[in-house]
Write a structure and sequence with these properties.
Blueprint lengths: L11 H11 L3 E3 L6 E3 L1 H17 L6 E4 L3 E3 H7 L1 H4 L6 E4 L4 H9 L12 E7 L7 H7 L8 E10 L12 E11 L1 H21 L5 E4 L9 H10 L3 E6 L8 E10 L1 H6 L10 E8 H12 L8 H7 L4
Parallel strand pairs: 3-7
Antiparallel strand pairs: 1-2, 4-6, 5-6, 7-8, 8-12, 9-10, 10-11, 11-12
Helix pairs in contact: 2-10
């Protein structure tokens, strides 16, 4: 009798996830891409967050912090659903009376359960931490002559469930958002790419930059991707994490031209539409890169890396 020997089907991402869970860094919830975080993981996230903040020392930057939700009106104005419906998620709430509540409780899983009785709320889950910034800046009126800088941070949500720990559905971004002229945005983009590369070098991570594009949806997607690349509007810093052969973006540096200015009515000091750009960092991804390249015990990371993350006070 022949006995077939089953080959393992575990991918590098599967193995990396198992190791993270075994060491208590990620806590599975039963939904792919949605995790709790352990104490050591959170300490490293806080250290990376602070390190990004130190890169902006000396900049005249306004610090703003947001919850992981934004107004539906603000979200709709951004055009995000038009370009990325596959990543979009909203908030639903129960708005019925007692009898509607009883009907919802009686609804079987095959009928959709209680969720089938929920209605869309007036908030959406934030897809990027810079998105709530634009309507707030627009509401203030024209920008000052020198433009404006905002330091933004929040949890973000993108609907892309995966067993790969790098592709979390809910994660944190720290972003710098620039408003002004085209020259100002290009200089901002270049300056932050240099700062970021220096930061990754200090963390002893094998980072590289490359032209990139967003995951546009629909028939127009190829044209939009080509346009973004040909105009050099988006760059990413890539580090191998789950799979050594497929590096992941840990930082993104974007020039939006006047997209958000048109969406929200953001005007420069002279009344013309302002240009905007952002430099964003995925905090969890950077910590995952550190765990992958320096080991699962942050206390045993190279001293130079620990000094960069936790400088002596």
């Amino acid at each position: 009798m022949n006995i077939a020997i089953m080959a393992t089907t575990e991918t590098p991402a599967d193995l990396f996830r198992e190791e993270l869970v075994r060491h208590g860094h990620l806590l599975p919830t039963g939904v792919d891409g949605l995790y709790g975080r352990g104490e050591a993981f959170e300490a490293a996230v806080a250290a990376v967050d602070a390190m990004v903040g130190r890169l902006a020392d000396g900049d005249r930057v306004e610090v703003l912090r947001f919850p992981p939700a934004m107004t539906r009106a603000g979200f709709e104005a951004s055009g995000y659903f038009r370009n990325f419906p596959q990543l979009t998620a909203g908030v639903s709430c129960f708005c019925g009376d007692d009898s509607a509540h009883r009907r919802a409780l009686a609804c079987t899983p095959e009928q959709g359960g209680f969720a089938s009785h929920m209605q869309p709320a007036d908030v959406m889950l934030t897809p990027a931490s810079c998105y709530p910034v634009y309507p707030i800046v627009a509401a203030r009126g024209r920008l000052p002559e020198e433009g404006w800088l905002v330091d933004s941070s929040s949890y973000c949500f993108r609907r892309e469930p995966s067993v790969d720990p790098v592709r979390m559905q809910m994660f944190r971004q720290r972003e710098q958002v620039c408003f002004g002229t085209p020259d100002r945005i290009r200089a901002f983009q270049s300056r932050w790419m240099d700062r970021a590369m220096a930061m990754f070098a200090a963390l002893h991570l094998p980072a590289a930059t490359d032209i990139a594009n967003d995951p546009f949806f629909g028939r127009a997607a190829p044209l939009m991707r080509d346009g973004q690349r040909s105009q050099r509007l988006k760059f990413e810093i890539l580090v191998p994490i789950s799979d050594p052969d497929r590096p992941n973006a840990c930082g993104s540096f974007n020039y939006h031209v006047t997209h958000f200015a048109e969406a929200y009515g953001i005007r420069a000091a002279d009344g013309e539409l302002a240009h905007t750009g952002c430099a964003g960092f995925g905090l969890e991804r950077i910590v995952l890169a550190l765990l992958r390249h320096h080991g699962m015990d942050p206390a045993a990371w190279p001293q130079a890396v620990r000094d960069a993350l936790w400088p002596a006070r």
